[in-house]
Design a protein that fits this description.
By secondary structure, the chain is an all-beta fold. It is built from no helices and 11 strands. Strand 7 and strand 8 form a beta hairpin.
Length: 127
C-alpha cells in the first residue's frame, strides 16, 4: 500500500478555482491508479475522477466534466485535481485513493478497487 496526503482544499467563491494535490509515499507510486472521491454532509461518497498510472487515461463523473482535470507527476509522486468553475454543490471533503494495477492505462471508478486512502481535504464553495 501507499500512504496518501491531500492538500489544497479551502474556501472559494462560486466560479473560483482550487487545485488539490495528493502526495504519495511508500510503494511504487507509478504502479497505482489514483482516484478522487468526495463526500458532502449527509450524502454518500461519490466518485469524482480517476487516472491510470501511465497518466494517459482519465475518467470523470459527468457533473465535473469540462470543469475538473486530473493529472499526475510520477517523478514527484503526486496527483493533482484542478477544479475550475466551482459550484456550491462541489462542497465536500475530497479524498484521494490508490489502487494497484498491472495495466498502464487502467483506472477505477468504484471504491472497492482502491486499497489506500488519504485523510481528505475540505472544499467549500460559497454562493
Amino acid at each position: 500500500q501507499v500512504q496518501l496526503v491531500e492538500t489544497g482544499g479551502g474556501l472559494v467563491q462560486t466560479g473560483g478555482s482550487l487545485r488539490l494535490s495528493c502526495a504519495a509515499s511508500g510503494r511504487t507510486f507509478s504502479m497505482y491508479a489514483i482516484g478522487w472521491f468526495r463526500q458532502a454532509p449527509g450524502k454518500e461518497s461519490e466518485f469524482v475522477a480517476a487516472i491510470s498510472w501511465s497518466g494517459s487515461s482519465t475518467y470523470y463523473v459527468d457533473s465535473v466534466k469540462g470543469r475538473f482535470t486530473i493529472s499526475r507527476d510520477n517523478v514527484k509522486n503526486t496527483v493533482y485535481l484542478q477544479m475550475n468553475s466551482l459550484k456550491p454543490e462541489d462542497t465536500a471533503v475530497y479524498s484521494c485513493a490508490a489502487g494497484p494495477t498491472l495495466h498502464r492505462n487502467s483506472y477505477y471508478s468504484t471504491k472497492d478497487d482502491y486499497n489506500s486512502w488519504g485523510q481528505g481535504t475540505q472544499v467549500t464553495v460559497s454562493s
